[in-house]
Amino acid sequence: MPGLKGQPGEATGRVTGESFRAVGGPLGEGRRSRYNAGVDSPDPGALSPRAVRLLAEADLCVKCGLCLPRCPTYALSREEGESPRGRIALGQGLASGALPVTARLAEHLGSCLSCRACEAACPAGVPYGRIIEAARGILTEQRPPGMAARWALRVAARAPVDRPNWWRAAMAALRAYSLSTVRPSFERVLERVWPRLARLARYVPRLEPGPAWKPYYPPVGESRGEVALFLGCVAREVDRPTLEASVRVLNRLGLGVHVPAGQGCCGAMHLHGGDEREALRLAKRNLRAFSGTAGPVVVAASGCAAALLEYGRLAQGEAEVVDEAREFTRRVAEVTDLMTRLEWPAEVTVAPLPLRVAVHEPCSLRNVLRRAEAPYRLLARIPGLEALPLPGNDRCCGAAGTHMVTRPEAADSLRGEKLDALGRVSADVVVTANVGCALHLAAGVTGRGGPTEVLHPVVLLDRQLR
Ligand code: SF4
Ligand code: SF4
């Protein structure tokens, strides 16, 4: 595609474990061996491939602790077990069989937000995200979650494609609920009888009905290329305005947008939970759905983009799809990043908007895709708009996949920091490039007296282009 450079997931020039050791690192090789002593002892033949991989990757950690100040759960608790270094050590103990599975160990591994701020800060290039996913996978093998939890996650991820009629009926009911006038009183009653469900209910935004997705949206004016849009499972319903705005802006920039049928969940929740088998199943489905398309696979939710970038790794050992998965990974493009790397047609003009906009940087955009600057560059296209980084952008907002519902105390505490920061910058609007963060922030801003609109940056741009 003309004018398009670089992709998320490319090498970023970070120091790797090997080069870190080669230059002697802060603690050096001898110290690394001492800190990791005891985990080299198990016979590799007796361990699962996942455990062997975890131990090899965790062995890069020199236990220097430079990641600790970046970890939100460590900041909340000040416990080593709630830190990246502590969780790596727990993962090593679990994988090698030196540590038994206990409720406490499960809690430390489960409370990680998978924000990967530690990974971004690590000078040794420790792949923390992969280590925690493997540790959770081993944990799940030994102590499977309840049937109900597994069933709910599996059904929710598969339903849009496997059970389209069920899914449509469920979404129609959710839409009716979101627009209902009795919703506030219902949620007040629910709060008393089932607080966890009441919390989930409050996250549901107003879901306006929309037309079915067309397979193709042609460019406006001269064609400058083709892209394929990834819808996601939750986002296709709750973040429809962002997806529709993305299509309109891409069309205005001269790109035809394909929306492949048969695409489904990205598998992020399964990956974070260590369920690589189900994540691979979902990956194969998406590979099939996008196989007939060309050009970038555009993703509007940075969390989904981060999961799609794992397909090449997930498919290792799957001879029939591994090449396709690697090629797919190369095609993944986060929407704000793609739009800023395109050459814009000269006839596209953006109307001015005198607004102070606070930019929230999702962890997936900042720490995994390493494209935190993309929303700022995109918003700079709007004359008169002032984009301000939300103070504390290096800390997770607490949404963290299902954490915002399953671990409400930590989620609310971290969101509270964001809301306080918002109050300080006196912005008119908040933007974020990830749907989970948007829902979590939106549920908190109401009633705080600050900005109440939480949008995707592309929605703001689309408004000014129309
Ligand atoms: S993960 Fe990296 S920064 Fe953290 S303790 Fe290990 S080597 Fe140090
Ligand atoms: S991923 Fe985030 S929460 Fe988990 S250990 Fe790293 S910094 Fe802490």
The coarse overall form would be globular
Uncertain runs with pLDDT below 50, 5 residues or more? 1-35
Biggest sheet strand line-up:
1-3-2-4-5
The name of the CATH architecture of the largest domain is Orthogonal Bundle
| Number of self-contained structural domains | 4
Please state roughly what percent of the residues sit in beta strands, choosing from under 5%, 5-15%, 15-25%, 25-35%, 35-45% or over 45%: 5-15%
The largest pleated sheet is described as: 5 strands, mixed
Bound molecule kinds, no repeats: iron/sulfur cluster
CATH topology of the largest domain: Fumarate Reductase Iron-sulfur Protein, Chain B, domain 2
Q: Give the N-terminus to C-terminus distance in angstroms.
A: 25 Å
CATH class of the largest domain: Mainly Alpha
Count the DSSP helices: 26
Q: Helix fraction?
A: 40-55%
Total strands: the figure is 9
Structure description:
The protein is of the alpha/beta class. It has four domains: 17-142, Fumarate Reductase Iron-sulfur Protein, Chain B, domain 2 (Orthogonal Bundle), CATH 1.10.1060; 147-202, no CATH class; 216-341, Up-down Bundle (Glutathione S-transferase Yfyf (Class Pi), Chain A, domain 2); 356-465, Rossmann fold (3-Layer(aba) Sandwich). The chain has 26 helices and nine strands. The strands form two sheets. It has a five-stranded mixed beta sheet with strand order 1-3-2-4-5. A four-stranded parallel beta sheet has the order 7-6-8-9. α25 (435-445) links the parallel β8 and β9. α14 crosses α26. The model is unreliable at 1-35 (pLDDT under 50). It binds iron/sulfur cluster (SF4) (2 copies).
